[in-house]
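yo

u said u wanted the structure for the complex thing, so here. seqs first:
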Amino acid sequence: MKTITMDLSCALAEAVGENGIHENDLRLTLGKISEYYTKLLARPFPFMTLPSTRFQFDEMYALADKASKTNIRNLVILGIGGSSLGTQTIFDALLHPLHNQEERFREGRPRYFILDNIDPHKMTAVVETIIPEIDRTFLVVISKSGETPETISQFMLFNELMKKSAGYRERIVLITDMEQGLLNKIAQKEGYPVLNLPPGVGGRFSVLTPVGLFPSAIMGINIKKMSDGAAGMAAHIVRYDAEENMAFALAAILYLMYKNGKPIHVIMPYCERLAAFADWFRQLEAESLGKKGLGPTPTKSVGVTDQHSQLQLYVEGPKDKCIVLLYSATSEVPIPDSFDYLEDVSYLANKDMKDLFHAEFQGTRLSLTESGTPNLSLTLDEVSDYNLGALFYLFEMVTTFMGHLLSVNPFDQPGVEQGKIYTKAIMGKKGFEKEREHTDKFLASPVRQVIF
Amino acid sequence: MKTITMDLSCALAEAVGENGIHENDLRLTLGKISEYYTKLLARPFPFMTLPSTRFQFDEMYALADKASKTNIRNLVILGIGGSSLGTQTIFDALLHPLHNQEERFREGRPRYFILDNIDPHKMTAVVETIIPEIDRTFLVVISKSGETPETISQFMLFNELMKKSAGYRERIVLITDMEQGLLNKIAQKEGYPVLNLPPGVGGRFSVLTPVGLFPSAIMGINIKKMSDGAAGMAAHIVRYDAEENMAFALAAILYLMYKNGKPIHVIMPYCERLAAFADWFRQLEAESLGKKGLGPTPTKSVGVTDQHSQLQLYVEGPKDKCIVLLYSATSEVPIPDSFDYLEDVSYLANKDMKDLFHAEFQGTRLSLTESGTPNLSLTLDEVSDYNLGALFYLFEMVTTFMGHLLSVNPFDQPGVEQGKIYTKAIMGKKGFEKEREHTDKFLASPVRQVIF
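structre next:
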């Protein structure tokens, strides 16, 4: 099989000079990863075994099947961060680009609303849209801890709305940790069915659990094939060593880039369907590795669009970046010779949009390389459930390897706790009186303002 | 008036220690900007006078008026980079969040499709959607140079589609440079009306010309008020000096951050309607300043969502960033006491979603500040046409000032030319035979591949 091809030529010193990676460093780093991986295989992290365990697949199919029989028109997903990014990525990649907008592209499936923010303006807009069809709305509430205030407050709102329609208990599913948390308490009291994250799998590593897969199953996406793709990638990582191992090679390059003064990792899909994948990886890399004063800064660009926005900076700006290109294009769109009186555009006439898209991708690669900006590219033969599953697993392993190389724990996020405490204090939660004094002081402290 | 308030307290050394700005540096930099601005006023750059000249407003109103009489259902905009980002920003800020999805929120205005990419999959989806209503589709083609291959190839495709419907000439408008370029030639031959960019105004500074304003006028957005906002900001910049001047202060801080080892500028709206504004500024800053080995890297985050994705990195990662927060929230969404049996959520019950949104914004500010990550915030009393015009003008001036401080020309983009040449060479354009040899060599050179 040859479904994903990674080309690392243009990340090497041979291609981009001093900004590139030296063979020696690459070999050494690959060795370190290989050694670590051997140990890891003896005691794998829980997310690593997901593709083989197919955790709660039967439960998901049963609930999705029941959902499809209720003739639903709207799927509302409440979740933020790791609870929403995976689903958004899958939907963007595998549903029709105008799924929500045009009924004929939905093939009988519901529209979806992923509420990953509490901006009251957007909330109002979605609520306005849902209310007239609340009896045909299916609600999925996702929070690993079960305590996320954004998700819980949204649930408080939607729970009241849903309760106004008959049979609403059939149209609510909660996804949360197996034991602890408020969502479990609510489920028990209200009689809502629950799906879980397996023990030890964190939010940003949860796309291949019910968190990402249950909403996908409702949309008719083949979650088994997605899981097969992840299993295929897991098998590839077991089978190959050194540079032939895609996860080893990608982790080594991204790590060496970071160490060699390229802390900005630009992830740049030439494929609109993979634009959300960049957001998904952005969380995975930032939250897993950004600690102890270390960590690359991931940033998202989209080709060809951002050639007209960011490329100038990548080519002539500081050499503090490496660019990870993703490429996939399959559809064909012929360009008619509509202005045959213009010599200047004859090179476009009767070509395909795909050819131009590919030429721009290659032109950008060459232009980056010649300006000494290291880059590498992953080309997918198609944007499929299988390849997407493989990509998820690949980048999860890559992040885990980078965590080891940087000596940070990729599975915690201690830096966000303080902000959560302050939010609760400002909201007047009991038990946070001392912190409230502190936030009051901050909010009352003299400010330097400029007013327009 | 007090419509936009900038708080710079948490960018200063007093608040964030060594990562912050010292009073002395601030004063010195403000002085440099002030001196430069005085010279600039004598010979302003062309974009600076746009709010007072109201360039082609009459022509825009006449054409938009005519458009509205054709009972159009789809507005298709072909443009990329500076030709699309402004319009996208305006539409996201001022139209209903579900404008395209729900007819009742459109108030009789058309759906819109901004085609800022040539990804063939997406192109196919949009063409499929438009074709059955091609006789009710209005096409706006935007390219300053008139030569952008992405836009021209899309136009070749849409021109053929449009020609199949009666009266299509009434439903096409081109926006381009006043004299040169292919779009002018096409307009002459086909009889399409043309709007312009005024001489000397570049793509990324063109949002307040017909490029951003004509599509807005079609959607019924008050472009005079937007222009008034820009004029208001222009007047503010003339009137105030030093730190009381919002453009001086913002430029000084962003520049000093860059100089002080914080080359990553995170622009983070707490306001979904301003998310696209971050993309607009991302182009403005990157393409204007990324040259001669210099230039900050702008990156976009959205609050509160990215608290669950990027905040960990901002708080505990390297101190190589400053965070520019934008905040605005007006709608109210009460949180009902739906789980009154849970003590743990009583602090949310009967509050407003807006209160939680604001508490998270403040909690994040405090948490960033205490971890020594410099940040500043701009709070808008509302997301209005007026404020949006003011913001555009503010950031354009800020970018111009930063260009002066960095000694780079903010109005060119030499670094993207090479990629354009390579694209044409790969596509087989006449006159690019020598470059074709070069691209052929690159494409045929041995690669280091990893295969899955």
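Chain B has two domains: 4-41+226-406, 56-197. Residues 3 and 74 of chain B are 34 Å apart (CA to CA).
cya
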